[in-house]
Specification:
The protein has an eight-stranded mixed beta sheet with strand order 1-2-4-3-5-6-7-8, with helices on both faces. The longest helix has 19 residues, at 136-154. The chain has two domains: 2-283, Rossmann fold (3-Layer(aba) Sandwich); 291-397, Serine Threonine Protein Phosphatase 5, Tetratricopeptide repeat (Alpha Horseshoe). With 399 residues, the protein is an alpha/beta fold. It is elongated and about 90 Å long. Helix 6 (196-211) packs parallel to helix 7 and helix 12 packs antiparallel against helix 13. 47% of the residues lie in helices and 14% in strands.
Length: 399
């Protein structure tokens, strides 16, 4: 009975609460857009979260990794909030890069998130409710060939992409790794329904991970506690994940960086958020700055991002806002180190006036007018509208 209930929950469309909220209490966390899909022959909505810095014109524009999220109507708020707290420097966290979230709501979940057409249930009896199954290949083609190109055309994206799915979405993520591995860099499968069609994706796992080239790819598998005291070895949902993990641990010679974690205190419904947190930390292992080291030696920072870029296979660099924030931490303690941080800022963002402006102010405070004038000149040249710096430059020149 427990397994049957889980099956029904797996196939069900996630419900989203709705209600009327006065405008003065509303907070916008994203936008809703859509595209007409030729592959699926329907218009598909999608939700987009961009980090606060995306529209911040104070600092140099940057490009962002994109996390593509299945069951987007159910998980958009939690995942975008998680990304914001981990990546935007709240409390100087910087545990993962700032990134976008593109969440894909469902139209026909069973059709899109089942890799094969099935006409019988797990009990072997005819199941008319499964008639629409088997459309995953088209759904993945829609994501790869229609949705991603539209996102890349409309937004400042970087070439690093993460694919996240829960339950049936979890096997969609695994099938994407098998069939379109070039599309994403990292895959997060949350309590995936590997029992589907007599474990068809589980049976393919050995072939893929022992022969395919997944060098530079990452897969994180999170498993919930879906066992109950009366369960036996017939809990196919639970056991299929254990078998999948065993296959990967035994046969993975593909270069795939893989991790598995069992969450004994979480069930199928509660496991997504904790898995997403752990998965992001695993994917971006080594990304988090050691602030004490950076404060002691600013030259650690460019080397850190060089190592991160090499590990992830895509260029990553600190945002200009991060550099200015870190320099601000030390400016009152060690002027020399603050100057070094701003110098690093000019290397990463040579066309931005801010670091030059601050270097001009610091050298002026030290009494070196020649250097102060040089940096102020660069600052004003890049931003002629900066009247404050222009005035300081005239004062230093004695004009």
């Amino acid at each position: 009975m427990r397994y049957s209930a889980l099956l029904l929950a797996t196939l069900a469309l996630p419900a989203v609460a709705s209600g009327q909220t006065p405008d003065r209490y509303r907070l916008t966390i994203g936008t809703v857009d859509s595209l007409k899909s030729t592959v699926l022959n329907e218009t598909r909505k999608y939700l987009v979260y961009t980090p606060p810095s995306y529209s911040d014109t104070m600092f140099s524009p940057q490009r962002y990794p994109v996390l593509y999220l299945l069951d987007g109507d159910a998980h958009f708020h939690s995942v975008s909030g998680l990304i914001q707290i981990l990546g935007t420097g709240v409390n100087a966290t910087y545990a993962v890069p700032e990134m976008m979230v593109v969440a894909i709501p469902n139209t026909n979940r069973l059709r899109d998130m089942s890799p094969t057409k099935v006409t019988k249930g797990p009990d072997g009896k005819p199941a008319p409710g499964l008639a629409s199954s088997g459309g995953m290949a088209n759904f993945l083609a829609f994501i790869k060939n229609e949705l991603i190109p539209q996102i890349d055309a409309k937004y400042r994206t970087s070439p690093y992409r993460i694919f996240v799915g829960h339950s049936l979405g979890g096997i969609t993520v695994i099938d994407a790794l098998y069939t379109i591995p070039e599309t994403f860099n990292a895959y997060i499968a949350i309590d995936p329904s590997l029992w589907w069609d007599d474990k068809v994706l589980l049976k393919q796992a050995k072939e893929h991970v022992s022969k395919d080239n997944y060098q530079g790819k990452v897969l994180y598998l999170g498993q919930a506690n879906t066992m109950s005291p009366d369960d036996t070895t017939t809990n196919n949902h639970f056991n299929a994940m254990l078998q999948f993990n065993e296959v990967l641990n035994t046969y993975n010679t593909s270069g795939l960086r893989y991790a598995y974690k069992y969450y004994p205190n979480d069930d199928h419904g509660s496991v997504p958020i904790i898995t997403e947190y752990d998965a992001l930390r695993f994917i971006f292992d080594g990304y988090k700055l050691n602030l004490s080291q950076v404060m002691a030696d600013p030259s650690v920072l460019p080397k850190h991002f060089k190592d991160v870029s090499a590990r992830l296979g895509v260029p990553f660099q600190p945002s200009e806002a991060m550099l200015i924030q870190l320099a601000g931490f030390v400016v009152g303690q060690d002027t020399t180190k603050a100057m070094a941080m701003y110098e690093i800022g000019t290397q990463f963002y040579p066309n931005s006036y801010r670091s030059y402006d601050r270097l001009g102010a610091l050298w002026a405070a030290k009494g070196d007018k020649k250097k102060a004038v040089g940096f102020y000149e660069k600052s004003v040249a890049l931003n002629p509208g900066n009247t404050i710096s222009a005035t300081k430059l005239k004062e230093l020149r004695g004009q």
